[in-house]
Inverse folding.
């Protein structure tokens, strides 16, 4: 019997609570001795956590096995973190990213930090990157704004509800949206969405210069990689299965890791230039 | 960065060579005492087992809510990620659902219960399992003596068809969405009902016989069991959809006269019980049931029961349909009434 701190050496995963204003964030550090880089994983929106968890953990382990230390966490009010979801806002979740990236940088400032966001997390990671945090940025399936992520979750939820609800109780996605616009709460995957969250989501945008890799690289002069999974660049498609299968996305891990490797070289070169 | 906060602690159970991460929800009443002794003696703990593809927080973080509530009420609660789930080290077994349906997690859950009982000086554990987690809970309860009771949310007693053809999936969708499809689906259900009647309600081929056997052995000993049932499409209450075999009634018959099985239908809940009505109904029914079966000794906070209860002679406690009220829960305080939940 042991606590997380003395967890078996092979795993080297340390779950801890991290204090932020008014809540405790659940974090898992995939610790590596003498890391070549650090990655902060900024996950998708609440309703997607459940489905993305397994590929997200596997990605963290994939990186840790290659000497990249990883920190992943649950947003305030979601999953293992404390706080009431209904009281949360994009500003608070933004603050989570900033506080954690600051903590991660403090651990050893000489090791480069990569911010990696998925879906809504891509917007939040990009915002922190824009404010100067991190040496490189990796985005999986970034929506144009948070509303696109919410809308995408809502569409999937409404489709599912169509299957389980009787015809008289069925609601379409537009019925739910109407409710939100009339200042009511709706419930999606067990989370209560407020109309405030819905309205705020229109103003939580991906920074304008992050439409593609080239524009972002040029704007920030740091490595940025944007991976989109849908046929249409504006769609938010997740790289994981929905309900009934564990999907093999090793191709994505390998592709992203190759980019991280390249980014680290570029980043190290940039730093040397600056120090020269 | 801390492993523990005022009301929770992150734990790892590492017995039997399997590392199982989890969260322990401390009882609020005893927090000063906990700080001194670090343990909660002689209480019945509640262990949550989640369904397929979920983390220990469960869908919509419902298990976090229930564990917080039960702990606040005096029952230390635990949520764990079994191998293949959440933060556990392993990948899921290739045939995950079959693995669960055949009792694949029984030995590990039973071992983890023993660890919890020893580590937290519990008198025993009540397992709360949802869907596939309920199946694992039944198998695990039969595999050891430390389980004092079961809370089963939408348990199933049959082998589910995992690989449906694409044509079948499309057909199902069409039957749900178009008026003609719904009409034909109703006819199909009636034909199945006729077939079922001719078969004299014998359990069909997809019955999970080892699970039913395990259930029978367990329930017939008088182990307190609470079954929470979410309504299914096309049928209200406890009954299954027309044309489907009534596994729940079959399981209750198997349990026998000495069983202590209580069934509650949670109106308004969806299958995950993660929606507001579902999670409130689970909290109220389960809390009421815990208080009845494992009352807390108010003097020292310990629960009265310390051994698996001996069989008692009592009939099934079915929910009285007439007494059942439509649960509509406003965003305010909720209290429990002796028979059901009310506002």
């Amino acid at each position: 019997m042991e606590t997380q701190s003395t967890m078996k050496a092979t795993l080297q995963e340390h779950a801890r609570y991290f204090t932020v204003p008014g809540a405790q964030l659940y974090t898992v550090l995939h610790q590596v001795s003498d890391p070549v880089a650090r990655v902060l994983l900024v996950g998708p929106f609440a309703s997607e956590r459940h489905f993305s968890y397994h590929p997200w953990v596997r990605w963290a382990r994939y990186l840790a096995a290659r000497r990249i230390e990883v920190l992943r966490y649950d947003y305030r009010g979601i999953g293992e973190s404390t706080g009431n979801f209904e009281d949360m806002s994009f500003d608070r979740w933004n603050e989570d990213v900033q506080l954690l990236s600051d903590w991660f940088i403090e651990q050893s400032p000489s090791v480069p930090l990569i911010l990696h966001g998925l879906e809504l997390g891509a917007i939040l990671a990009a915002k922190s990157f824009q404010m100067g945090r991190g040496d490189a940025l990796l985005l999986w399936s970034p929506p144009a704004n948070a509303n696109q992520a919410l809308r995408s979750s809502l569409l999937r939820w409404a489709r599912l509800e169509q299957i389980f609800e009787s015809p008289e109780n069925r609601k379409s996605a537009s019925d739910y949206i109407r409710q939100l616009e009339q200042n009511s709460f709706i419930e999606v995957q067990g989370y209560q969405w407020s109309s405030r969250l819905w309205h705020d989501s229109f103003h939580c945008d991906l920074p304008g210069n992050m439409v593609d890799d080239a524009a972002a690289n040029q704007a920030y002069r740091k490595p940025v990689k944007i991976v989109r999974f849908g046929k249409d660049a504006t769609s938010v498609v997740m790289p994981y299965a929905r309900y009934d299968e564990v999907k093999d996305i090793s191709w994505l891990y390998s592709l992203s890791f190759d980019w991280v490797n390249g980014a680290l070289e570029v980043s190290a070169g940039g730093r040397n230039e600056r120090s020269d | 960065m801390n492993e523990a906060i005022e009301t929770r602690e992150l734990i790892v159970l590492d017995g039997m060579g399997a590392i199982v991460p989890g969260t322990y929800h401390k009882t609020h009443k005893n927090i000063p005492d906990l700080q001194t002794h670090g343990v909660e003696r002689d209480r019945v703990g509640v262990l949550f087992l989640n369904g397929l593809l979920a983390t220990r927080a469960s869908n919509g973080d419902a298990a976090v809510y229930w564990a917080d509530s039960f702990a606040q009420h005096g029952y230390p609660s635990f949520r764990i990620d079994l191998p293949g789930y959440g933060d556990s080290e392993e990948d899921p077994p290739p045939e995950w659902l079959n693995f669960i349906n055949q009792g694949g997690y029984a030995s590990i859950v039973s071992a983890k219960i023993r660890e919890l009982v020893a580590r937290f000086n519990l008198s025993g554990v009540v397992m709360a399992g949802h869907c596939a987690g309920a199946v694992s809970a039944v198998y695990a309860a039969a595999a050891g003596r430390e389980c004092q009771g079961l809370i089963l949310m939408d348990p199933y007693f049959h082998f589910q068809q995992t690989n449906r053809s694409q044509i079948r999936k499309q057909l199902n969708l069409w039957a749900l969405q178009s008026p003609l499809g719904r009409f034909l689906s109703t006819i199909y259900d009636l034909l199945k009902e006729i077939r079922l009647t001719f078969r004299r309600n014998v359990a069909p081929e997809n019955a999970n016989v080892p699970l039913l056997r395990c259930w029978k052995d367990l329930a017939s000993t008088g182990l307190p069991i609470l079954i929470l049932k979410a309504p299914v499409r096309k049928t209200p209450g406890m009954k299954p959809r027309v044309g489907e075999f009534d596994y729940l009634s079959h399981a209750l018959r198997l349990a026998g006269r000495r069983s202590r099985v209580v069934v509650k239908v949670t109106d308004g809940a969806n299958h995950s019980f993660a929606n507001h009505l579902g999670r409130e109904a689970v909290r109220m029914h389960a809390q009421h049931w815990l208080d009845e079966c494992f009352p807390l000794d108010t003097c020292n906070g310990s629960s009265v029961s310390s051994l698996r209860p001996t069989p008692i002679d009592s009939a099934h406690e079915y929910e009285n349909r007439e007494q059942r009220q439509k649960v509509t829960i406003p965003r305010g305080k909720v209290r429990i009434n002796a028979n059901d939940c009310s506002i």
Notes: Confidence is low (pLDDT under 50) at residues 1-9, 272-276 of chain A.
